[in-house]
Amino acid sequence: MSGRHPAxxxxxxxxxxxxxxxxxxxxxxxxxAGYNISLLRSEDVYIDLYTDSGTNAMSDRQWAAxxxxxxxxxxxxxxxxxxxxxxxxxxxxxxxxxxxGRGAExxxxxxxxxxxxxxxxxxxxxxxxxxxxxxxxxxxxxxxDEAHDPGCEHxxxxxxDLAKLERLIHEVGPEHIPYVSxxxxxNMAGGQPISMANLTAxxxxxxxxxIPIILDAARAVENAWFIRQxxxxxxxxxxxxxLRELCARTDGATMSAKKDSLANIGGWLGVRDAGLAEQAxxxxxxxxxxxxxxxxxxRDMEAVAEGxxxxxxxxxxxxxxxxxxxxxxxxxxxxxxxxxxIGGHAVCVDAAATLPHLPRDEFPAQTLAAALxxxxxxxxxxxxxxxAGRDPDTGGNRHPRLELIRLTIPRRVYTQSxxxxxxxxxxxxYKQRDLLDSGLRFVHEPDVLRFFQARFLPTAxxxxxxxxxREP
Length: 472
Fold this sequence. Notes:
It is a single chain. By secondary structure, the chain is an alpha/beta fold. The protein folds into 2 domains: 23-52 and 314-458, Aspartate Aminotransferase, domain 1, CATH 3.90.1150.10; 60-311, Type I PLP-dependent aspartate aminotransferase-like (Major domain) (Aspartate Aminotransferase, domain 2, 3-Layer(aba) Sandwich), CATH 3.40.640. 39% of the residues lie in helices and 12% in strands. It has 17 helices and 14 strands. The strands form 5 sheets. A 5-stranded mixed beta sheet has the order 2-8-7-6-5, sandwiched between helices. Strands 9-12-11 form a 3-stranded antiparallel beta sheet. The protein has a two-stranded parallel sheet with strand order 1-10. Helix 5 links the parallel strand 3 (118-121) and strand 4 (138-141). It is globular. The mean pLDDT is 96. Keywords: Lyase, Pyridoxal phosphate. InterPro entries: ArAA_b-elim_lyase/Thr_aldolase, Beta-eliminating_lyase, PyrdxlP-dep_Trfase, PyrdxlP-dep_Trfase_major, PyrdxlP-dep_Trfase_small. GO terms for molecular function: carbon-carbon lyase activity. Belongs to the beta-eliminating lyase family. This is Tyrosine phenol-lyase.
């Protein structure tokens, strides 16, 4: 079995038809979507790697759990099973359900952030920073420099630079820092983990200044796997045990159960402080639903509770990481510039290195994602200048050092053969990269999270994205 892709630890009981489209049909769909892969209809997408959020395949046990959902408005037994699962696996005493992760981010931000606050973190995430800014805060990136270097092989590129964090604390004062925002893994860096040693050091530093740590735990199980694989002293621990230790070094967490917990909807906010929990429950009633359902149906809470237990099963997480690595190896072997090491939930192609001739304000990653869809029907996600948004002070586009397209692998959905098709599509576009001699410009730009609903047009009338399709 050495060198071969391992078999998945599940068998298929139901299938869903995938749409197979022509290049001409994809060109029409792309034009109708304003050259924004976010606005494509799923019926026009062959292999959808836009996100791993809510796109996972639930197990037979999760589907069975749906049938036991208690839909009582108040005090449903499904909530208490859900609460117990979160406490047992993540360790937070107070559990507030939300409809998904950004609901938890909204509640947390409204509870803790005021105008003039500063929130350090290990690289921004789109919705997290948006909530922080909408409540008057300013995000500060304190991740290690290696995280911004796609080719660097540092095993824990999600680590926080302690010197950067301490410098910020002294500059703005600890009283103006409501919490340190720690992602595990770091999505915008390509799914890169933080080490246990680094988080422990961050905990020691923040404790001296009485600053809480809030974990983005959406993919913390994947982070726990990398700790066990890469960090000395953790090889003999279970993934479940590493997860608990990771969370034990934090004061709370926001969670999108649509990721690691293998559910199609759901989330939670977990905290240790009783006063913050009371405040959060009051806000949940206003924005999400009663504190014992928080925007989820009882059946959703049952599916999440079961998914939490499945997420830490060794064979499940191993197969998940191995599938992502399999795609990464194929692309790396073909010379595609990627973010290294390969992350936990996605393979990220370096669009800036692929299309170095395109100005950043012509959005190389957005252009490359559109070209990939046109060529193969594969939908990826842009994670570059479009996602970064505009600087609130200058009004200009932010230009993050990482200009990526993210091939995000849903859990338990696609087979090895699908990964082969994706690899062929990316390699095909890479070979034609010189033909992508012009990019895209905005024709509609929303004020917040523009990448979801923006519309574009090619900057040149003879763009490869608009040339007449020639079908065989």
